[in-house]
């Protein structure tokens, strides 16, 4: 930010100098030197006003940056930022029935994790946001200043902080029979995640020894999307089961219908036979009557 301000001020100075040069050259042929000086004074006044306006604009631009830096450097406020970021990701992926916020994993314990995701098998996945922003800021300052000792100390401080946070999540929020044997530590900064990845085997060690997954915004979103796909697969399987059940009912009804059709055909065939027999007897009776008529005549 300081470099940007210096560049802008340098540009303003160059423009002012160029403007003064043009004004002075334009006033050389004039016999009224006093008028030229007045013109120069007025030009300087105008340029000074412009510089003041630019300075105000730069200050107004820098103020929100400074406020954001102070905001993220404070433990409680930085934690809120991490919680809001985590909430935005979860809400964008899951419906409200699949997660809970500020959830008390063990009833009556008073220990509340920021979010839990309800998994298909009925257990919970605890997710807690952690953001050691002040320690990360110390590392960035040491790195920019080229101080290797301070840089190493800052990395050690971050490592220690992340390990303590992992212990906190493991002890408070991973409970057998309530949650799965896994917890997620969410870091709302990809830059900080890159630094954590560079610290020995920190992520691998915490996952192996404490069953804590450390994830940034991108990796967490991908992980939760895979869980969400599991929900959809389960829903499709349930719907497939319902469809097969209804198909089974339809098959039984069709078999009954087919059986009733066979019975109807048999009855119709028997009726045709009966009609044929009746018709044969009728013809025989007509023949007998004709024979009797012949005898009478």
Q: Rounded to an integer, what's the Rg over CA atoms?
A: 44 Å
Distance between the termini: 139 Å
Q: Give the strand order, joined by hyphens, for the main sheet.
A: 1-2-3-4-5
Gross morphology: elongated
Strand content: 5-15%
The helix count comes to 8
Beta-strand segment tally = 5
Helix coverage percent: over 70%
Characterize the biggest β-sheet: 5 strands, mixed
- Summed up, the domain count is 2
**SSE succession:** HHHEEEHHEHHEH
Helix/strand structural class: alpha/beta
User: What low-confidence regions span 5 or more consecutive residues with pLDDT below 50?
Assistant: 70-77
Provide the residue-averaged pLDDT: 74
Structural notes for this entry:
This protein is α/β, with parallel strands linked by helices. It has two domains: 2-70; 75-230, no CATH class. The chain is 75% helix and 9% strand. It is built from eight helices and five strands. It has helices at residues 2-26, 33-73, 75-93, 133-145, 148-173, 190-198, 202-210, 217-296; strands at residues 99-104, 112-118, 124-129, 183-186, 212-215. It has a five-stranded mixed β-sheet with strand order 1-2-3-4-5. β1 (99-104) and β2 (112-118) form a beta hairpin. α1 packs antiparallel against α2 (33-73). The chain is elongated, with a radius of gyration of 44 Å.
Brief digest:
It contains eight helices and five strands, in the order H-H-H-E-E-E-H-H-E-H-H-E-H. It has 297 residues and is an alpha/beta fold.
List the helices and strands and how they pair.
Layout: H1 2-26, H2 33-73, H3 75-93, E1 99-104, E2 112-118, E3 124-129, H4 133-145, H5 148-173, E4 183-186, H6 190-198, H7 202-210, E5 212-215, H8 217-296
Helix pairs in contact: 1-2, 3-8, 4-5
């Amino acid at each position: 930010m300081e470099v940007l301000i210096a560049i802008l001020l340098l540009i303003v100075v160059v423009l002012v100098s160029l403007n003064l040069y043009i004004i002075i050259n334009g006033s050389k042929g004039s016999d009224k030197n006093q008028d030229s000086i007045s013109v120069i004074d007025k030009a300087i006044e105008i340029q000074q006003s412009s510089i003041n306006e630019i300075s105000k604009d730069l200050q107004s631009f820098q103020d929100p940056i400074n406020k954001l830096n102070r905001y993220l450097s404070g433990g409680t406020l930085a934690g809120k930022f991490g919680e809001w970021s985590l909430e935005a990701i979860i809400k964008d992926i899951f419906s409200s029935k699949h997660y809970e916020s500020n959830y008390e994993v063990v009833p009556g314990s008073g220990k509340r994790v920021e979010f839990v995701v309800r998994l298909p098998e009925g257990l919970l996945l605890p997710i807690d946001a952690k953001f050691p922003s002040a320690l990360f800021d110390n590392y960035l300052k040491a790195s920019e200043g080229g101080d290797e000792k301070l840089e190493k100390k800052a990395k050690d401080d971050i490592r220690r902080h992340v390990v303590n946070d992992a212990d906190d999540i493991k002890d408070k929020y991973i409970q057998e029979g309530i949650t799965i044997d896994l917890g997620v530590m969410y870091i709302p900064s990809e830059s900080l995640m890159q630094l954590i990845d560079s610290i020995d085997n920190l992520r691998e060690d915490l996952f192996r020894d404490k069953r804590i997954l450390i994830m940034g915004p991108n990796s967490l979103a991908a992980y939760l999307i895979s869980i969400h796909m599991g929900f959809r697969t389960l829903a499709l399987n349930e719907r497939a089961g319902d469809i097969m059940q209804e198909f089974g009912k339809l098959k039984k009804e069709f078999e009954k219908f087919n059986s009733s059709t066979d019975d109807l055909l048999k009855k119709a065939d028997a009726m045709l036979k009966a009609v044929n027999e009746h018709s044969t007897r009728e013809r025989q009776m007509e023949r007998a009557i004709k024979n009797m008529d012949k005898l009478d005549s």
